[in-house]
């Protein structure tokens, strides 16, 4: 190359570098990515050892800009290019560590921060670096042990910093389900309240929704929220091959029996194994079907505890949780904190048993549940539905249901149902199923001193009803509230009663909340 040409190229490179840096400082991410790309390709067409340092920095800066646009796959590739040139480049190690941490790959992130710390022990960012090191260690421990504790947050009235949560998979695997398609199945005996999984959303969208969702304003708000949510999922999926592949494994509601059963290890963010992820594109129609079948409405912890939903609504998609089927006698519960969903056992679960959630309110009568399942796009064939379909052919059952619908007094409904169950010789869990279906009237009766004075001797005690309901369909905040009120009426209850309430609470809120926090919200 002639001297003048060489000089001109040097000038062009210098200008591109300055321009790209300026764009980066101005946070004009796309433009700066373009300019760094130009700089990098020029450097690579005519390699010159004296450009190594600037090339390393260009890759590093492009990685930063790409991570800001959430293009994490490409950003990580850039980090690796920069580290090939200078394997302890501080800025790149920090950038790579932060991306990996964001992707919940704690060990790999920890490794980056460790190298950075070893090679640059007294850099100006050492405090930040130490912060990241500690965070990675803590999350890695939580992810391995499942030792989450949200008690301080609960005790603070759900205010302040959200509790630290990490990806966690308990004793479960994905298997063919007897209910439909694939499901999550317990790999060991799991006791009440134990964690089953904690996982972060691919995307969420939240907003304040007007009270009525049926008028124009409400419908419009709902549509805008859904559109924003779909856009976010599409963006996450196109920016990360792994996310794209995992989403493509989810059910679109059709031909579930022919769907492949993926290895649960594929859902561990840290796993580097190649699970044969296909590159199959998901068209927009397919994506909408998948989101329709698998998206969940957030059940925030605070709303669960207070029983009030308010105007605040959130929707999201959580990959592994999408494999959990519905049952009207579920054995698990979920709640959401920040972007995480936490699923715990709401009853004792035996090895080999399928983990199930109530997609909708299972404390409602068969007819209402059938309508809700229809809205979800399926016909529920769980044990409880089968039993209740049989019973509903009985004449008295029709009368009881009718009475319930038109609001016959609650004592009469409970009395009639209990007497009918005796005649039909309904036993064990089946009693709990029917009592859960009519929980609304049972709870109204148990909390009213006046009604209990009238009906108390003719119907089973609250303890008997609660035990059978919880055994059949698991605990619920509403059951817990009735029990706590009953205990208060009886002057606070003894140790045994308190122990029972705590057990019920463990089923409702899980073991992530320790005794002191549970006591505080119950009192
Ligand atoms: C979130 S997915 C659950 C996992 C799904 N079975 C799979 O193979 O990926 C929800 C879909 O599973 C099916 N499903 C879940 N619970 C069911 C039930 N109790 N009865 C029938 N189908 C059910 C329905 O097709 C529903 O739309």
From TrEMBL:
Q: Which GO terms describe its biological process?
A: methylation
Limits of the SET domain = 170-360
CDD domains with a match to the protein in the record: SET_SMYD
* SUPFAM superfamilies registered for this protein in UniProt: SET domain, TPR-like
- Family annotation (Pfam families): SET
- An annotated Gene Ontology molecular function: histone H3K4 trimethyltransferase activity
Which superkingdom is the protein from? Eukaryota
Keywords assigned by UniProt?
A: Methyltransferase, Transferase
Which InterPro entries does the record cross-reference, listed alphabetically?
Gramillin-biosynth_MTr, SET_dom, SET_dom_sf, TPR-like_helical_dom_sf, TPR_rpt
Instruction: State the name under which the record lists this protein.
Output: Histone-lysine N-methyltransferase chromatin remodeling SET family
Q: Which gene encodes it?
A: ATXR1
What EC number(s) does its UniProt record assign? 2.1.1.354
């Amino acid at each position: 190359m002639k001297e003048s040409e060489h000089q001109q190229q040097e000038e062009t490179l210098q200008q591109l570098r300055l321009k790209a840096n300026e764009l980066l400082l101005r946070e004009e991410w796309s433009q700066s990515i373009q300019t760094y790309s130009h700089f990098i390709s020029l450097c690579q067409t005519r390699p010159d050892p004296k450009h190594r340092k600037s090339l390393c920095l260009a890759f590093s800066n492009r990685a930063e800009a790409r991570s800001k646009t959430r293009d994490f796959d490409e950003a990580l590739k850039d980090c690796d290019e920069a580290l090939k040139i200078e394997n302890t480049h501080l800025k790149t190690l920090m950038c790579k560590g932060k991306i990996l941490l964001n992707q919940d790959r704690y060990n790999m992130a920890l490794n980056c921060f460790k190298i950075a710390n070893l090679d640059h022990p007294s850099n100006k960012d050492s405090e930040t670096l130490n912060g990241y090191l500690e965070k990675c260690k803590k999350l890695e421990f939580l992810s391995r042990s499942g030792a989450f504790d949200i008690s301080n947050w609960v005790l603070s009235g759900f205010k302040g910093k959200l509790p630290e949560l990490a990806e966690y998979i308990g004793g479960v695997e994905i298997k063919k389900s007897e209910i439909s398609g694939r499901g999550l199945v317990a790999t060991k005996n799991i006791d009440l309240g134990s964690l089953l999984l904690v996982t972060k959303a691919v995307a969420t969208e939240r907003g304040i929704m007007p009270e009525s969702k049926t008028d124009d304003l409400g419908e419009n708000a709902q549509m805008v929220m859904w559109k924003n949510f779909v856009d976010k999922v599409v963006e996450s999926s196109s920016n990360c091959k792994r996310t794209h592949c995992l989403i493509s494994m989810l059910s679109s509601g059709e031909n579930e029996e022919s769907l492949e059963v993926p290895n649960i290890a594929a859902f561990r963010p840290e796993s580097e194994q190649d699970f044969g992820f296909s590159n199959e594109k998901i068209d927009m129609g397919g994506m909408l079907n998948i989101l329709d079948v698998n998206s969940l409405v957030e059940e925030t912890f605070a709303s669960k505890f207070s029983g009030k939903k308010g105007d605040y609504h959130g929707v999201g998609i959580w990959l592994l949780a999408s494999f959990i089927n519905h049952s009207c006698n579920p054995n698990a519960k979920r709640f959401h904190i920040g972007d995480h969903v936490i699923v715990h056992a709401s009853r004792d679960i035996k090895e080999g048993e399928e983990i199930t959630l109530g997609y909708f309110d299972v404390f409602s009568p068969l007819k209402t549940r059938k309508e809700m399942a229809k809205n979800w796009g399926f016909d529920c064939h769980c044990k409880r539905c089968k039993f209740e379909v049989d019973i509903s052919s009985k004449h008295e059952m029709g009368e009881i249901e009718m009475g319930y619908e038109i609001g016959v007094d609650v004592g009469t409904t409970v009395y009639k149902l209990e007497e009918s169950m005796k005649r039909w010789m309904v036993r064990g869990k089946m009693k709990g199923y029917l009592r859960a279906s009519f929980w609304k009237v049972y709870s109204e009766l148990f909390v009213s001193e006046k009604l209990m004075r009238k009906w108390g001797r003719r119907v089973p005690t609250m303890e008997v009803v609660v035990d059978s309901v919880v055994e059949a369909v698991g605990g619920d905040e509403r059951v817990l509230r009735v029990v706590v009120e009953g205990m208060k009426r009886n002057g606070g209850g003894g140790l045994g009663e308190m122990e029972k309430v705590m057990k019920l609470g463990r089923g409702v809120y899980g073991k992530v909340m320790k005794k002191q926090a549970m006591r505080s919200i119950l009192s």
